[in-house]
Each structure stands twice: as C-alpha cells, then as structure tokens.
C-alpha cells in the first residue's frame, strides 16, 4: 500500500501544482533524471547499493527491483522534476527549497526502510542516501540551466561512487 500511496501522491501533486503550460522547458531534465536512474540500474544490476523490494498488493504487478525501478523512473521522477523545477525560487531561498526536497526524499526513504520497500547492500546506508539526494537535486537544478555541465557532474559522481563502493567492473555485463 505504501508504494501505491507514493505513486498517487506524486502523480496528483504533479497534476495539481506543476507548471504544465511550460512542460517542454522541463522535458530535457525529466529525461535526464530517467536516464540517470536507468543508468544506475544498468551499472549496478549485479552489485546494487540499494534495491526496491516488492510489496504486498502490487507484488504481482511489480514483483522485482527492475520493474519497480522502471515504474519509479517513469512516474515519480518525472513528477518530481516537474514539481521541483517549476517552483524553483531564485536567490537564497533556492538552497532552502532544495534542502526541503532532499529532506522529503530522505524521509520517504526513512519510512521505506521499516516498510521493507527498500533494502541496502554493499555498504550503502541512509546517510549515503542523504548525500546522494543533495547531489541529485543539485545536479537536477544544474541540468535545467546547463545540461552538459550536469552530465559532467554525473560522470564524476559515477566514478567517485563506483570507486568508493568498489564496484567490480566484471559485475557489469
């Protein structure tokens, strides 16, 4: 029920409060977020840092991490991008706004742990997720204004994370 509720909340919120008149301004960043998510799933398929776990009720529809990740990538992440970027303030308020989203995403993950909707592997824990969320929302903002710079940061982040968590290159097939 937890995951269904998340999907409904994100879809409804994006429908109600996003800037749909200018959706095409956010479309490249939506695709960027989706691609980054799918890239993580490709690179870390055999050596995951975190996995979405199937939950009762929708277990038949989303029975494994791959299908759940695809569903999240094509629903929650586009909704997040639309909501986040269409209300992004200017100046000092931007940092507070970004940190609010970081805390919101971290809170969702904190709730996901006892619900067994997510599991951690290979040394990952909630503290790393907090840092990862800061990086994610920072890079998402950068992508909206300077896409090539954001791709550079993604490449650097992949190298750092893969090195730090000792991603075995032979695990990438």
Automatic annotation (TrEMBL):
Lineage, top-rank taxon, reads Bacteria
| The keyword Transmembrane helix is assigned to this record | yes
Q: Where are the transmembrane segments?
A: 26-45, 66-89, 95-113, 125-142, 148-167
What keywords tag this UniProt record?
A: Membrane, Transmembrane, Transmembrane helix
InterPro entries per the record?
CBO0543-like
**Protein's name according to its UniProt entry:** Uncharacterized protein
Organism of origin is: Orenia metallireducens
Lineage, highest ranks first: Bacteria, Bacillati, Bacillota, Clostridia, Halanaerobiales
């Amino acid at each position: 029920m937890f995951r269904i509720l998340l999907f409904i909340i994100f879809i409804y919120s994006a429908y109600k409060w996003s800037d749909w008149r200018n959706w095409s301004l956010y479309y490249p960043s939506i695709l960027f977020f989706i691609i980054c998510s799918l890239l993580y799933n490709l690179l870390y398929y055999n050596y995951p840092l975190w996995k979405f776990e199937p939950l009762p009720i929708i277990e038949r529809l989303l029975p494994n991490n791959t299908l759940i990740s695809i569903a999240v990538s094509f629903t929650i992440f586009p909704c997040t991008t639309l909501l986040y970027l269409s209300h992004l303030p200017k100046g000092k308020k931007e940092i507070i706004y970004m940190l609010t989203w970081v805390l919101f995403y971290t809170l969702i993950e904190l709730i996901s742990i006892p619900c067994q909707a997510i599991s951690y592997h290979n040394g990952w824990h909630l503290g790393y997720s907090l840092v990862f969320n800061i990086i994610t929302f920072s890079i998402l903002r950068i992508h909206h204004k300077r896409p090539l710079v954001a791709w550079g940061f993604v490449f650097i982040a992949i190298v750092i994370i893969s090195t730090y968590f000792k991603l075995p290159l032979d695990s990438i097939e």
